[in-house]
Model the fold of this input.
Amino acid sequence: MNEESIKSVREIPAKDARLKFIRTIVFLLFFGSGISGLVYEVVWTRQLTYLFGATLFAVATVLSAFMGGMALGSYLFGKWADRYPNNLKIFGMLQIGIGVSGLLLPFILSFMDPIYRTVYRNFDASFFVLSLIRFILTFLVLLIPSTLMGGTLPVLSRFMVKENKSLGLNVGALYSLNTLGAVLGCFLTGFVFIAALGVRGSTIVAVGVNCLVGIVSILLASGVKPTVPDKKENKTDENTQIKDIPVQEDAASSRKIVHAVLWCYAISGFIALSYQVVWNRALVFTFDVMKNTTYSFTAMLTVFLIGLSLGGMAMSLFVDKQKDCLRLFALIELMIGLFGAFSFFAIFYLGPGISPFDLDEKVATLNWAAGVMNVFAKTIAAIFIPTFLMGMAFPVVTKICVDRIKSVGFGVGRIYSLNTIGAIFGSFASGFILIPILGIAGTIYLLAFGNILIALYLFIINPMLTKNKRTMLYVICILSAVILVARAPRGAQFQEESPTEKMVFYKEGPLATVSVLENSFKYRTLYVDNVGVAGTDRILLTDQKSLAHIPMLLLKNPKSALTVGFGSGGASYSYTRFDAIKDIHCVEICDTVMDSAPDLLASNHGILLPVKRNAPMPLPLKEYATEAYPGYLTFDPRYKIILDDVRSYLRFTGRKYDIIATDCTDLRYKSNANLYDYQYFRLCRERITEEGMVVVWMPLGGLSDEMFRLALRTFYRVFPEMSVWYMNNESTHYIILIGTPKPLKIDYDLLRKKLEVPKVKNDLGELFLDDADKILSCF
Done:
């Protein structure tokens, strides 16, 4: 052996060590890419609430664009990856592109404001049409960075996979580490970044991570030999089939099985995202203090992603050794169905009792840490196993469907894109179709049934199964389906009733679950996703009536009013007690709330009557009732319902009001805090007349002293002439903030004169507030 040969032999271990080091760094880089991806998703959703308002359209736009771009990018870059010699360099360029587009995105969205404002003001379009226009334009903008994100997995898969025996391990590890990064990104954004850095700061962090990952990848790529397939060398290995499915050497049959598996995985993606939507809707009913908060949703999404990541990681360790991956995929789907059905049992029956981190009810302040830990505990108990199984499916499907080393990029891209497309339709169908028709419980069991059908179909097309095994698996699937149908809950209601309460209304709508409970004193309370928001007891009636009467009594001659949130309809009704007002508009985000109006007559006195959608107006009413909103009648022609988020409405409408009254339930509930921030108060200030007034309901409980003072300071920044009112006729749990452009001057004689009007006096008389001195004592 000559000296040159000896030198080349010595270089082999060094070369292998260098490649192992590079591959390790690549795994870490993809982990970082996952972190930034979820930071963007959370931040974009937050930003779009300023455009769409806090509607399902904001979430749906981000989710659809995010997943649509992922699907498109997976497919396009997957095909390109198999032909490009240095995929690590492509990955680096994709990361830098994501960072640049993520940085520019807020500016691009702001440039589109004039388009939305023109459409909103100059065209008599419905809420749906306006939302559709916003959806399309925003979708196209978000599609750019999300498409780049979608290309990262197939590009890196082509770089990492060099031989068929490590296909499942490498692709599964990439998928798992990226998802694990997404877990960390989701958690940090929801619990740390936005609170500490704000939306803009969180975006800069994500951009910095992308650029760092991109630069390091490009530098590493310069030391990696391009992997262009050599026609002379390794020709056999490059064309080695990876599938373990013996199909009697029949290529046509093999392709049919691959196509069948791909479609099954697409349907599985539909089911997986449908599960996520319905679990989010159901789990909030089991939480003690967090309810519908940013923290609860972040915790649920974190657990979902952890399950996917750990499942993919576990399966990637041994999938390459499996002889019959088709049977394994079928068994996974069967188990997802069974544990998916069990998730209903865990949520409905076990969830309320799972509180390993006990909350101290004697402490008046919120035990935040214990509340978060209980959210995690209940979510893990309900959904961890099915999400773990969902994560296991990806490496298995990859092993089945990627047939040759030279087509790894295309194969992985195709798998990921089809699953993601299924997920897009699943998230839409679950929220808008399945839950409103079948309810939460029915949707969970239907999805579980779908998993079992997928498993049965995969067993049917599997050519490796013996007759006895096939028969046994058929019986297991059929028995599982029969048990699901037999045990499926009928009429399950997630709103809990106490022994002294009864349910008088319950409906699971597209945006929320709405219910009305009546207690032993015949008082009724309206609940939205298990949070009491309005009712007919004296304290809640004081809340509603004061939001109308205080501004109407203090202002000289108000002609128009906008009340935010229909609730039980009390504020809307009280505005109609004043004949001088000409326009009474109510912005409501969830039309399911309005369906409960007939069961809260003690509050709204029949101001709104829901009728069957698209049905002709009943003849006895046609002569004296007008349409407040399609499907709803009102007996006061001045009253009108606007189905929209108030931030969106105020931002794009050209209308000004004498009064804007915001009635919320709890700053911790969903996006209610968006109605207490500086931007919202500025919008209100811009949309009132110079003699107008902004009225805001502010809770006294459930907030720390610091947060309560912060909310007051924020209102004061916009309305330096603010005043604070406390309705002292009852032991109320809130204050009322009043903001005016000019110093408020109270005309005592005018106040007394307005209180002498019988309709006004009678309405306030129910609460013993029909006296000018009593009203002023609340100042």
Q: What stands out?
A: The first strand starts at residue 502 and ends at 508.
